[in-house]
Design goal:
Blueprint lengths: L24 H14 L5 H10 L2 H14 L4 H18 L2 H22 L14 H4 L3 H7 L4 H10 L4 H14 L6 H8 L6 H15 L5 H14 L4 H13 L10 H22 L6 H8 L4 H7 L9 H5 L4 H7 L5 H4 L10 H12 L1
Helix pairs in contact: 1-2, 1-3, 2-4, 3-4, 4-5, 7-9, 8-9, 9-10, 9-11, 11-12, 12-13, 14-15
């Protein structure tokens, strides 16, 4: 007779097997990863091990979801992104590695932008195009005390052109009156700009609209930089000669209201831009500047205190230099003002003729 079939003879993975009572390994890994990603105290090593044990696509999907949920905790997002970057290296997935680095940079810099009170949708930071981030550079420089290293680090993290950062730094050093040691700051970075035309344009823009007509020191510095870049430019040479005369001349008559209003109009855009990036409450910067045009004479003098002792450079090198010179011309000043004739392309005879007309 045939022996009875014993239960122990059933297939190892069949119904009723003890092995079947053990959870599926893949399911266990997935649940362990999900639980680890939800824990307040994050075990990065355990998450890393679980991700390598799970299917790569499913593992990164869970990690990506966890990073999205941790958006208000930049440090946690950075830590999770670093785990993802480590896994990407093991999986040899360059695109995934780049994505994790971008997420980490966005999380780290979103916290910095909030501390600096710079307005930007931080949720878009990791996907923003470089040109969308360029407007943050100048206010970042202003809010960090002109720390160009921080701005360059930001540029490197988000592929913003470093030349753009350097030019913004130079422009702000030229235009912001309270930036100290601007000469050394500019000379320390100007050589980093390979595109000479862009550097020339930055200096020329500062000269035309960014610097006060009464700030001879800044004007001379910028003109000297332009002379180095444009040694054959006769207009720049004339500007330098005019400034040489003005620096040794003390104004005798007070500025007119029209002169001060013209100076305000010329520098309005540049001054408003500087005010906005230094002003925490940006909503009031524009209205303050708009009101300046209607302020009384004393308020405009307070805006340009050097105007009481200096002639306006831009008024002289513009199309109507006699508007400035006539009120200043006298028997006592004519010899001092006469050296302006050559660089301003005026006739010396006109100085004496206008002097005679003023006393008749």
């Amino acid at each position: 007779a045939e022996p009875k079939r014993s239960d122990s003879g059933s297939k190892p993975n069949g119904k009723g097997s003890k092995d079947n009572m053990l959870p599926d390994v893949a399911d266990l890994v997935t649940r362990s990863l999900a639980r680890a990603l939800q824990q307040p105290g994050m075990d990065a090593a355990f998450i890393f091990a679980c991700m390598l044990s799970a299917a790569p696509v499913a593992a990164y999907q869970r990690l990506s979801t966890a990073m999205g949920h941790a958006g208000q905790q930049p440090a946690r997002v950075v830590a999770l992104a670093h785990v993802g970057a480590a896994c990407s290296r093991v999986w040899q997935q360059q695109a995934l590695l780049d994505r994790c680095r971008a997420v980490a940079a966005a999380a780290r810099w979103s916290a910095q932008l909030q501390l600096l009170r710079l307005k930007f949708d931080v949720a878009r930071l990791s996907d923003a195009a470089p040109e969308q981030l360029e407007p943050l550079v100048r206010p970042m420089l202003a809010r960090t005390g002109m720390d160009i290293a921080t701005a360059l680090e930001f540029a490197d993290a988000f592929r913003v052109d470093t030349t753009f950062v350097v030019l913004e730094y130079i422009a702000l050093c030229c235009a912001a009156p309270h930036v100290s040691s601007y000469q050394a700051r500019i000379l320390g970075v100007a050589d980093e700009v390979a595109n000479v035309k862009l550097l020339e344009r930055t200096y020329a823009d500062a000269l035309d609209t960014g610097i006060s007509a009464y700030d001879y020191e800044r004007l001379q510095f910028v003109v000297q930089r332009l002379q180095e870049l444009r040694p054959q430019d006769q207009a720049v040479a004339r500007h330098a000669a005019v400034l040489d005369v003005l620096c040794s001349y003390d104004r005798k008559t007070p500025p007119s209201l029209d002169e001060l209003r013209a100076e305000w109009a010329r520098t309005r855009a540049g001054r408003d831009a500087v005010r906005r990036i230094y002003d925490d409450d940006n909503n009031h910067a524009g209205s303050e500047s708009d009101a300046l045009a209607t302020r009384p004479y004393a308020a405009l003098v307070a805006e340009y205190p050097a105007a009481t002792r200096r002639l306006p450079f831009h008024g002289l090198v513009g199309s109507a230099p006699w508007t400035v010179l006539l009120s200043e011309l006298s028997a006592e000043t004519v010899d001092q003002l006469l050296p302006l004739a050559l660089p301003l392309e005026l006739s010396e005879d006109d100085f004496y003729m206008n002097l005679i007309d003023s006393v008749l």
